[in-house]
Write a structure and sequence with these properties.
InterPro entries: CLS_N. This protein is 68% helix and 0% strand. With 118 residues, it is mainly alpha-helical. Helix 1 packs antiparallel against helix 2, helix 1 runs parallel beside helix 3 and helix 2 packs antiparallel against helix 3.
């Protein structure tokens, strides 16, 4: 078990780095194209894993705040939930206004019908 432990550590770190690389959005990968990062991680297990976590992985919000904006512009983050998405909220407001207008129209018709009957 003593000699297998370093191998297992390298294997697990390589798998974690590879899964992280594959699950990262292509536009967020830094340094190299995503395919090359996968090859580097697989062909150079120790060096590739370290390089991925320090040079290829997307910057977190805290790290990104400290970096000068000299590099390529990053696209805005995708909304995490529907209520964070302005387009989704606009769609709700529009459909709700239509529903409210239809409801008001039916109420007015009903009120007019009741006035005519009484």
């Amino acid at each position: 078990m003593g000699r297998a432990l370093p191998f297992l550590i390298v294997l697990v770190a390589t798998l974690v780095a590879l899964i992280d690389c594959l699950s990262t959005d292509r536009d967020d990968v830094r340094g190299l194209p995503k395919v090359l990062w996968c090859l580097v991680i697989l062909l150079l297990p120790v060096v590739g894993v370290i390089a991925w976590f320090f040079a290829g992985r997307p910057l977190t919000t805290e790290q990104h705040a400290g970096v000068a904006s000299a590099g390529p512009r990053r696209r805005p983050a995708k909304p995490l939930a529907p209520d964070d998405d302005p387009e989704f909220l606009r769609g709700i407001d529009t459909s709700r206004a239509r529903d409210d207008a239809e409801l008001l129209r039916r109420w007015e018709e009903d009120l007019k019908r009741r006035e005519d009957e009484g």
